[in-house]
Structure of histidine kinase:
Amino acid sequence: MKKLWLKIGLSFFVLFFIVMVIVGLISGELMKGVYMNMKENQLQDDAKILLTTTKLEDIDLDQDADKIQADLVPLEDKIDARITVIDQSGHVVADTKEDPHELGSHMNRPEVQEVLKQGKDVGIATRKSSTLGYSMLYVAVPITHNGVTDGVLRISISLESVENAVHQLWLSLTLVFGLALVFIGFISAFIARRITRPVNEIIDVSMDLANNRYYSRITGKTSGELQDLSLSVNQLAQSLEKQMQEIELNQQRLSGIVQNLVSGVMLIDQRKLIVMTNPMMEQIIGEKDLTGKAYFEVLKSFALTQLVDQCLEKKAFQQEEITIYFPRELILDANVSPILSKTGNVTGVILLLHDITEIRRLENVRSEFVANVSHELKTPVTALKGFAETLLDGAMYDEVLLKKFLTIIKEESDRLHRLIMDILELSRIEQKHVSMNLEQVDVEDVVIATMDTIRPMAVEKEIQLVPPILEKPIVIHAERDRLQQILINLISNAIVYTPQNGEVRVGVIENEANDTISITVTDNGIGIPVKDIDRIFERFYRVDRARSRHSGGTGLGLSIVKHIVESCGGQIQVESIEGSGTTFTVTLPK
């Protein structure tokens, strides 16, 4: 495609060329006509002068033919023209170039006829001479005698000189016009470039805008309408750049929101192909690079596929709780929303999957917790009520029964108090309402103090408590009471599940690599079955319900320990072999 400036320049050049050719042709023809007219007038004047000088009007043309021929012969070398005298009948009387006797009648010559037959004062004709063989210009004037035309004096010249002069004229015009065209060509190119430079810049900026280069601007100087157009294009570019920046920012925000949603998002077009997904959706489905695939090939759940189909068919929001089993078992809250055009056609759907597996598990735990609390509270309350009614029915008058029943009432009251206090304590820890009074604590000192506190319980079952043996003191930044509460729960729990004459060992290890300490509580008791290990930190969960209830435990000790450890920024782990013993490991930052 030619450049715009070249098109405009060529248009100007062609226009000037056509105009100059037309002007040149007209000028040439006019100048040729003027030149020929001048020659005709010159010959006419020459003929009249010759009539006067030769006195042909006073001579009888037919009788004095030889004298006339003799008078004209000397003029052949002096005048660059042919002189011919013709009588009234058309016969040649005298001629400076040819023998008049050998020339035929000239009555049929146009210039002669105009004078002799038409009676004109002058006859003019241009033609190729039949005798000389080249083009001639003929001018004839009448020879009169006593007012009567006796003949014709004709003067003719060769047109070769005229044609040479006209040819030279054409060469001069061509040279002048050629130089003018070259000059006009340069001027046209300069003007075209000057005109098209801002236009080309406007076109370049428009192409940049079409190719998303919204920073492009028109910087060249223009005037008139082009200046208005340049300002409009710059304003358009500025507006587009601002809008695209806003769109890009909104896309980034939307992408950030979608990518970080805890719910899985999938966009499906009208061709049932996946357009976009977020990482959570890929995690739920268990596949990556889902874009471009059909949704029914990706979703491994018939219920999910059917839900999307219903949305496409009914053009309405669909919601259902669905359980999937691949790649793992999950309970999902599935929501499918149609994307409708202005005409009401479905252009796509949005599938939103929210993993509610943990919520449902927690709901089950809560239900179990409520049932366990109800059961745990019901047992001591029932005992209190039953023994109180028995005393009121008359057993109070028996001192032995009275003392026995009151002792049981006190124990059940203590148990009820411990249960309520543990529930309140666990609630405060979970809600992080417990303030931590941190201080430098000697771990070995806390372990020894805790063992001394709980030793009577161990002595009763003849269980040996083995303290840690440290080469140097280990000090951590923690709350002493909370650390002691962790140890009391773990050691007492170990004593409960360790048979007679067993052993409970406490160890402390300093981890200098990650600046933490590990406290281990190991027993050689009954151990924990593999199926129960994941649930032992749940509220009221007991491996051996009969033994723990007999020991007076509330079933909340390990839950309290786990929450205290996590609130201190630590971790708790358990390793157990059924029938061989259990080891609890608490890792705390120093």
